[in-house]
Known about the structure:
heterodimer; A: 159 residues; alpha+beta; Ubiquitin-like (UB roll); DNA polymerase, domain 1; 2 domains; 5-stranded mixed beta sheet; B: 336 residues; Aldehyde Oxidoreductase, domain 4; 4-stranded mixed beta sheet; 6 helices; 13 strands; 25% strand
Amino acid sequence: MLVELTVNGESRSANVPPETTLLKMLREHLDLTGAKLGCDVGDCGTCTVIVDGVSVNSCLMLAGRADGCDVTTIEGLATADELHPLQQKFEEHGALQCGFCGPGMLISAKNLLDNNPDPSVFEVRDALAGNLCRCTGYTKIIEAVIEAGEMMGQEQANV
Amino acid sequence: MKKRGRGMACMWYPIGFTVAANPSAATVKVNTDGTATLLTGTVETGQGALTVLAQIAAETLGLATDDVHVVSGDTDVTPMDTGAIASRTTYVTGNAIVRAAEKARDILFEAAAPLLNVKPEQLEVRDRRIQVLGFPARSIAIDKVVHHSETVLGNPAIGSASYNPPTVDMDPETGQGKPFNTYVYATQIADVEVDDETGEVEILKIVAVHDCGTPINPMLVEGQIQGGISMGVGFALQEEILFEEGRQINPNLTNYIMPTSLDMPEIEVGLVDNYDPTGPFGAKGAGEPTAVPTAACIMNAIYDAVGVRITALPATAERVLAAINEKRAEDQAVAA
C-alpha cells in the first residue's frame, strides 16, 4: 500500500506491505534510522516519534494509520547549523551514556516542551516515563530537559 | 498508614580484578601539529571512559582534551587491554596512558632542553608549551619541539607502556595477601515511605557519597553514580528474573520491571576527593561500586520505617506486606 507522510517537514512516501509498522517504514523504507527498534512491544520507548503532535511508540503503530500525518523524528531536531536546545543541553549535562534511549528520550522531551514550555520536575518525569534508560538514572536527563525549556523560553523572549 | 524511614549502607570495592594478571597497554604519540594520538584497547560503553582517558593523556602532555585523538578497541592497531570491566579502566588503563605519555613527553624534554638552555628535568608542560619549571616566559610551543625532535634529532615523540597492578599472592598459612592494589569506598543513605497497609515502598531521596580517588571528570562520575543507583533501586524493589522449570518466564520489559523516570528518587551526589598516589592523577574508579550499597540502604530504611527485615530481593509490595503481617502476628502472640 502507498503511505504518504510529512516527515520532518518533507513529503515522503513508500509502498509498504500493509502489516508494516511506522517504525519499519521510517527505518527500512525511508532510511531514517534514528528511531530505534528496542523491545518491539511498546515498553522501552526508543522508537518514539511525534505523529500529529502526539508522541507514539512507532513500533506499535501501523504505517497505514499514519498516512497523511505529520511525523517528527530525531532527524528533525538539529539543523545543519546547530543542535536543538534539547540536544545541546543533553550534551552539556552528559545526559546520555550508551545513547540507545536517546532518540526516543529527546523526542518525548520535545513533545513535552512543545506543549508545556516550562514544565515542573514531576511533569518531566511523567512525560519521560515511557522511555526506559538503563545507564543514567534519569537525573541528568531531567536536568537537561528543564534547562532546555528555560533556554527555549529565553530564545522566544529574545525574538 | 504511610511510615517514613531512613537507612544507611557503606561499602568498599576493589578496583580491577585479581587472581590472573590484569594489564593494560597504551601508545601515545605527539604529532607535528601539536595534537596527540592515543591508542588504547579498551572500549567506550557510554560511561565516558574515552573522555577520561583523553583527559589523562592531555594532562600528562600539557595539551587540551580536544587535542587528543583516541583510537580504541580495534585489535588491528590498538595495544592489549584487559577491558572495560571490573571498574578498572580509569585506574589501570589510565596508569598505562600516563606512563606512555610520559615517555613521549620525555623525548620532547630531551629535545627542548638544549633549546631552552636547561636540563630536561627542569622542564614542564603547560598550555600546549614546554616551559622551564615556573617560568612560562621561557617556553617553546609543543608542535615546534615535536618537529625539531623528528626532523633534526631523528627522535619522534612516541611512547608505549603497560600497567599491571601489583598484587601479593595469598599466604597459605595466614590467608593474608594483597589481592588488589586499591579500593574505593562509599556511603549511601535512603529516605523511604512504606505503606503498612499495602507494603508499597516509595523511595523519597538517596544521598550517595563516594570516594573514587580524585575524580578526573566529576560530571561523568556523577552520571555513573546516578546510573548505578537506578540499577540498585531496580535490584532493591523491582527487578527479578523468574524461572519456571528452568526457563525464564519474564524475558521482556513487560514482565521484567526496571525503574522508569517516575520510580527514581531525587539523588544527591557527593564526591570525596581522596587522592590516591598509585592512580592516574590520584584517581581510582567509579563503575560497579556505585550500585553496591543502594539496595542495602533501602532495606535498612524499610526496617526503620516498619520494623521488618526483608531478606529476599526485590522487596515487592507483596513481600513487604507479608513481612509486616508476620510481625503483627508475632507482636500479638507476644502480647497475648
